[in-house]
Amino acid sequence: MTKSPNRALPPAKLRRGRLADLDALIALERDFFTADHVISRRGFRHFITSPKSTLIVADVDGKVAGCALVNYRQASQRARLYTISVGREFQRRGIARQLLAAAEQSARGRRCRFMRLEVRADDPGAIALYESSGYARFGRRSRYYDNRIDALRFEKPLSRLRNAT
Ligand SMILES: CC(C)(COP(=O)(O)OP(=O)(O)OC[C@H]1O[C@@H](n2cnc3c(N)ncnc32)[C@H](O)[C@@H]1OP(=O)(O)O)[C@@H](O)C(=O)NCCC(=O)NCCS
After folding, report:
1. What is the pTM (predicted TM-score) of this model?
2. What span, in angstroms and rounded, lies between the C-alpha atoms of 119 and 161?
3. 9-18 pLDDT, tens per residue?
4. Closest ligand 1 atom number to CA of residue 85
């Protein structure tokens, strides 16, 4: 049995997010995140244009299939994966793994040595993604999300860029 009926879809192309993606990004975000942890239109607009952020979009046939957002702080060697999501119809095709690798590559390009992130303690799919991608758990934030769900904190050391630009 194949893992997903969507395997026949064209491969995802990764690119920087742009203002024309706003509606699609908001729809994606609202499908998964609520209240305190949803990124607003204003928030996305900021992240798309801010030099302290990299918003990567997975584009499948002209559609926004997923996104990953990395934030940077000045003088910090730690990048933060602020969000990653893949639309339901595009899941289990390796798109999150592709987005995560691109997010890490972007962080390496900013000379960051670590990527950090938080994930809901009740999200085994996302936890499996991070653990199988080299992330190790180092902490927990109590009742961080809605419904008092804890956040698990993960970190990955980033190897050096071979061909730094
Ligand atoms: C978590 C999420 C980003 C994964 O996206 P995806 O494109 O389906 O993930 P991939 O196909 O790249 O899967 C990579 C690995 O993640 C793990 N994984 C992903 N979804 C999973 C699921 N539903 N159950 C178990 N493991 C899962 C698997 O280890 C998988 O590797 P495999 O397919 O070789 O077994 C997606 O389900 C999503 O957007 N969820 C809602 C938003 C969210 O929870 N984001 C994380 C916030 S921290």
Report:
1. 0.93
2. 26
3. 889 999 999 9
4. 39
